[in-house]
Write a structure and sequence with these properties.
alpha/beta; 23 helices; single chain; GMP Synthetase, Chain A, domain 3; 5-stranded parallel β-sheet; Rossmann fold; 26 strands
Amino acid sequence: MLSLHLFAQVKLPKIAALLWHLALIRLKVKYMQHIVTLLSEQVKQQAQNVALKIWRNQAWQCFTWTDFSQQWTLVAKGLIGLGHQEEQCVAIMSPNMPEWTITDLGILAARGCVVPIYPTNTLDQSQYILKDAGCKILFVGQAEQVEIGLELLKSGQIETLICFEESEHTQQENVMSLPQLLALGETIDVDELEQRQQNLKMDDLATLIYTSGTTGEPKGVMLDHANFAAAFAMHDQRLSVNNKDVSLSFLPLSHVFERAWTYYVLYRGATNVYLEDPALIQDALPRSQPTLMCSVPRLYEKIHAAILQKVATASASKQKLFHWALKVAELRLAAKQQQVQPSAWLNIRYRLANKLVLSKLRAIFGPARLLPCSGARLADDINRFFQSLNVPINYGYGMTESTATVSCYSETQKSISTIGHPLEALQIKISEQGEILVKGDTVMRGYFNKPQATAETIIDGWLHTGDAGNLDAEGNLVLTERIKELMKTSGGKYIAPQRVEGALIREPLFEQVAIIADARHFVSALIVPAFEALELHAKQLGIKWQHRNELLENAEIKQLIQARLKQVQTNLARFEQVKQFTLLPREFCMKQGELTPTLKLRRAVIESRFAEQISAMYAEKRIA
């Protein structure tokens, strides 16, 4: 099916155009159902099949579709018992767990609006969101969120705190556990809930998702049930997900990507597996055996770097075998992308390469058959590396304001240098300034309590994404840079920091990189080394150190970093290349406010926190 943005370019007879229009109407009618209604259909069809599961206390805890439905119904009734009114906002602040989704559906079933808060948010950040959204009830997950919840209760910001887990705090006034809420739900007459569900409307707000933002205060993105229903319909045109699939949920449910994906896989009847601590993804993959998993590019950057580092320390013969196998895999991928049948000789070499090398690398991902990836730029060479291995990364692009996906690969055609074809029924155009504009049923209603920001972002129905890009000859979307993040040097040169950082992060010795260039006369960088790899190199060089800072100040280590920096910058223009760098002894992190929950750099925070190191780089003699 052609995307609407190409439709105007296609000369069709009037009858064909009419049929196309009718098909879109049928598509809308079929899918314009409330998420609670859609999941209730799955309950009828899969009563005793597993809907949700989590690894707890060295064993699987499973929730059948019947369990899931019963519990979300009790949450809804319990909220009614607490005085929750229709269309009121209720907040959830917790790591990923089944209780998150059970509560989410319970709030929606009570005709409420869900306000997710990142579990890593500070007290002040949480307070801002709760005040702006007018939430009086807050659900919390683990001890860290409970402590913040108690402070919010004490200050009067919220009226009721509900903890997913039992603790000594749940005996306090206005504090209760989820099991206590479920017990309260048992006492509430079902008539009130049934009346609310008769009142459910597609233009009811489903959620307010506060964008974490790399600058400025958060904005509450208003998404209604029609937005999600439209997203389901569009994904059905692109993907094939069914009740045999298992999806691993490890990105935060407080972000639109994982949240919308969780809704989608449950709507399709798949099993959703929850990982509370995303740092444990390496252990979770073999245990969970997921066929589906959405992720951000950082995961693949780290895996790619780890593989290359392991190869670098292998014997010469193993290195030679790896590079031969990868070359064969890349040749086969190129043939497939050009829709050319690989030669018999190439197929023979590929089968050997797959047996000796490729299949072992692919085994990291188990039985995965679809791995949606978005949230940041995925470097072409890293994308090509995994596509060559036949790791099924489905790279795409989207934002909270568009209910996640705008474009992604199809399951059969993947153009490495693009972010895929726009979803069916979405209109895409490129402004005169090169900005990507989006129109369609998945575009948000606006920003909550921010009419001016809404008017600046949605103009004549077109969502202004803030991203620059273009459409190639096949209609694939190509992302170039984030317009609002462009840096201008004092010499008038524009730097796209993500492009430069993407080039540098390919070096296995670099864990994280933050570019500094705005209003400066050259580009510099704060570099967090991959310490395990760096320490291995230091030992090979015979360098001795006691503390990490000693290692980072060592002249030989700085020379090594400078040499590696030079190697990865060959494809950058001279004005884009890093001239000075500082090695940092720790990673940028969310708790320090230096990263968004989707691991984007908060540049203003980083530049403020490391102002002394940055000033020193520009005070030093410039490196040629």
